[in-house]
Write a structure and sequence with these properties.
By secondary structure, the protein is α+β, with helices and mostly antiparallel strands. It contains four helices and 14 strands.
């Protein structure tokens, strides 16, 4: 298991997007300056497993674990995440000062950043959309996914490991699901995408700290399946009625509107509009 180490310092000031190599930020809450410390590995069992071990050992926020391939990558509900060489597999460590109930906000925020970063590499990003709780789609097919794991201390989140997988140059087979990828055979795409994604994520984390969940919620809804879409969960069918202020999905049925805190949904019949890269501003 070989590892190379690098660092990207990103900061996002009020009124401007994050950038690579900008000067120091004024100290501001739990975020302040994001100093992404990247460790790249040829092969790992799981980037999230290693990142969680490091988090439990007291590693500071900003660690990014990237692997060329994974032998035990996973998605939601323990599903295997197929990890051929050339795609993007990373896990990031953050230490937000948030209550457990607010954890879904970070997954949705990451989705907004991920969709914007992926869209930046498409001539036409109109096919990019978000699907609750953790999928990025391209023309209705799965392009990327997010898995967030966390640890709690004294009723608050101690750390969060944000795992991200994105199909950059190939689309692995997933039984029962359509999959998509960005650009087959694009040399250097992963490094370019890594810088773009970390830049976008820094921007949205900074905005979240300064303005709360509202701008994230608005951006997510603008890119997702439209309000009014028929959806189904494992035990219910109803109408998508938006998100609550903690990031839970709102399901409207004849008896009223109920929050869905976790799980997966099926859309009936169409995906939503796209999030363009420029919309983060």
């Amino acid at each position: 298991m070989r590892c190379s180490v690098g660092s990207i310092r990103l900061c996002a000031r009020p009124g401007q997007s994050g950038g690579i190599g900008c000067g120091p930020c004024v100290a501001r809450g739990w975020l302040n300056v994001i100093n992404w410390r990247i460790e790249r590995y040829e092969s790992l069992g799981s980037t999230s497993d290693l990142c969680a071990v490091r988090a439990g050992s007291g590693e500071k926020a900003g660690l990014v674990i990237i692997a060329e391939t994974q032998s035990a990558g996973r998605g939601r509900s323990g599903r295997k995440w197929h990890s051929p060489v050339g795609n993007f597999y990373a896990s990031l460590l953050i230490r937000p000062h948030l209550a457990l109930a607010d954890a879904p906000m970070i997954s949705l925020l990451t989705g907004v950043a991920l969709a914007g970063a992926l869209g930046a590499f498409l001539q036409d990003a109109s096919g990019i959309s978000l699907k609750w709780p953790n999928d990025v789609l391209l023309n209705g097919a799965k392009l990327a996914g997010i898995l967030v794991e966390s640890s709690i201390s004294a009723g608050q989140l101690d750390w969060m490991v944000v795992g991200v997988g994105a199909n950059l140059i190939s689309a692995p087979f997933i039984e029962g699901r359509k999959t998509a990828h960005l650009a087959p055979g694009h040399a250097g795409l992963r490094d370019e995408f890594t810088a773009q994604f970390l830049d976008d994520l820094a921007h949205w984390l900074d905005l979240f700290e300064r303005q709360g969940f509202s701008p994230v919620k608005q951006a997510w809804l603008a890119a997702a399946h439209p309000i009014g879409t028929m959806i189904s969960t494992h035990d219910a069918t109803g109408i998508f009625a938006g998100l609550n202020d903690h990031g839970a999905l709102l399901l409207e049925q004849s008896g009223g509107i109920s929050p869905i805190l976790s799980g997966e949904i099926a859309l009936q019949p169409a995906e939503g509009p796209a999030l363009t890269h420029a919309s983060r501003h």
